[in-house]
Amino acid sequence: MSVKKNEVSKETVLEVSLEGLESNDSTNFVAEVVGTEVIPAKYTDRKWLEDNAPEFPVELTSKKFDAEREPKVQSGLVIIKELMGDKINPLVLLLGKWWECKPARAAIKNMIDAEAVALGRPEDHYLQTDLRENVDKLSMLQNAVDRLRYSITYFKPRGGLSSKEIFKQFSIQGTVYNVPLSLLTEAKATYPAVEDKQKLYEMIIAGSTKVEAEEL
Length: 216
Fold this sequence. Notes:
5 strands, two-stranded antiparallel sheet, 2 domains, 216 residues, elongated
């Protein structure tokens, strides 16, 4: 069920915001009251939330906030957006992005409820059924990711990874060189066109060693 705004005078709102909810941006002093919670205006601005990195002032941050874990969560959300595109509701991602900031969390939940009303869906069913569906699919994906990680680790050499470069001899313009295969791959990607063949040779020669022929 959506939460109705309490009728509070502008003076009361400003007084509360100046006790710890203000920011350096004076335009954020006008706050919004939702239930018993005072929400700075910037947190009710969807575009501002989307365009800015989460902030975690002590007085507004969840007690469960983990400063070491949070960057990993934020990076993961970016990857989910890249992979899922429009298959996951952007407000769900926004909720995850700002979850640890309590007033932002409340404001985004109100945005989701408003979207449910606009679509003619019960607010609780919309979040817990409609929007949850693709998130549950992601949780199943985690099991597959764990399997892939284990499969790769299983074949990790016990003595550690080999750092030895692999070379192959090539004759370039009549001279034989020991060419690192990694350099050869890079050079071919850098100069794929036939007309750049001379530049390809020059790049390979610069990173290779000449093979001196032995006389009998």
